[in-house]
Amino acid sequence: MEQIDLNRYEVTGILGSGADYEARAAIDRATGAQVVLKRPEPQMIRRQMHKNIEARTDRVLQVYEEVGHRIPGVVPILGYTERTNHDAYFGDDLGNDYRVFVAERALGIPLVGEVKARFTGVPIGVGQHLFTLFPLIRSADHPPFAIHEQLLDVEEQFFNAGYILLDLRPQNIFYQPDSGRISVIDCGALVERDRATGARRRIPQDIHDFYLEMLKFYTTPQSPPMQTRGYRDPYGLRPVTNFEHELDDMARQFKAVPDEGVQGAAQTLIGQIRQRGYSAFEAFRRDLLTYLETVSAYHESLPDFSEAQHVWSEALDWLRDDHWQRYLFRPETDLAGFTR
After folding, report:
1. Domain Protein kinase spans what residues (predicted)?
2. Do 273 and 247 form a contact (C-beta atoms < 8 A)?
3. Cross-sheet strand order for the sheet of 34-40
């Protein structure tokens, strides 16, 4: 990772914009490599409200240089600019200084797409539902629950290096269906493992806050959708705001699941997280995989499972639409393995 000159890169399009960053696709003029340029959200820059985003960028660069470059599954950061005015390069008139950083393009699609695309009818939650919440059809080339396992692998490596990585929401995760691999594109929500705390918190954050995120974003008490509209919208999109309240909501919802095995496996996870009772990472991994296997068996036992698989396949076809072609994703090959 090095300080770079933006003129080395030719912008080819806007990939998306979130609360903190705007991302643009670009080509490295020297190598032809496809990269992404990330800068604070332009309106925040214009209003001089990007100070916290700049601090987040500095934190991302610091931790990537310390440990992130060694962790498979984290998108490589190639370089960063000095903090200066980039109006001439981007062709806008923001009038303030900021830093841009350059990363490799992640392969595949985001598990949850850009929120703005939702207003144009794009089913931005389809990846999350198809591949994590309701993987009713799996590629024969991939092990079960591969996304969950890889998220755990990334977190465990950060944890062993002295950090807890939070905010692993599905919009921060890219997934390439062909290879079955994930890429984490945002590692900004890091806290030091032994000094994990936050404003207005009586109980310091610890690894159980990550475990809660895994349940919130990558499990659900809901049954497989029987209409494609059930795959459209993201699930659990808002960030965790209150540890106890989130667990209370989950416990209440899982009580309504008709299968006692699923109820029991979910309540084991919720109870241990509530007590912050997992003394070892492997213990949580074991209980989560037990839960996922129990849910999978329950879904397969449903009398309308074959019809649910048909609906799943129809939702999968949404990924062939033009919107998803902005990413490094080729549906003809990436989706070829997902057949009944």
Report:
1. 9-340
2. yes
3. 2-3, 77-80, 101-104, 34-40, 21-28, 9-17
Check: CB of residue 3 under 8 Å from CB of residue 80: yes
Question: What is the helix (H) or strand (E) element at residue 251, kind and residue range?
Answer: helix 243-254
Block residue for tokens 């062993």: 160
Q: Give me the amino acid identity at 310.
A: H
The pLDDT value recorded for residue 335 is 96
Residue range 277-282: mean pLDDT, rounded = 94
Which of 265, 297, 323, 316 shows the shortest CA–CA distance to 114?
A: 323
CB atoms within 10 A of CB 121: 10
Q: Which residues contact 36 (CB under 8 A, 6 or more apart)?
A: 15, 23, 24, 25, 26, 102, 103, 104, 105, 106
Provide the edge-to-edge strand list for the sheet that holds 181-184.
109-110, 173-176, 181-184
| Sign of the C-alpha dihedral computed for residues 213, 218, 221 and 222 taken in this order | positive
155-176 tens-digit pLDDT:
999 999 999 999 899 999 999 9
What's the pLDDT tens digit per position in 192-209? 887 655 545 556 789 999
- Structural domains in the chain? 2-104 (3.30.200.20), 109-334 (1.10.510)
> What is the Cα–Cα distance from 197 to 200, expressed in whole angstroms?
9
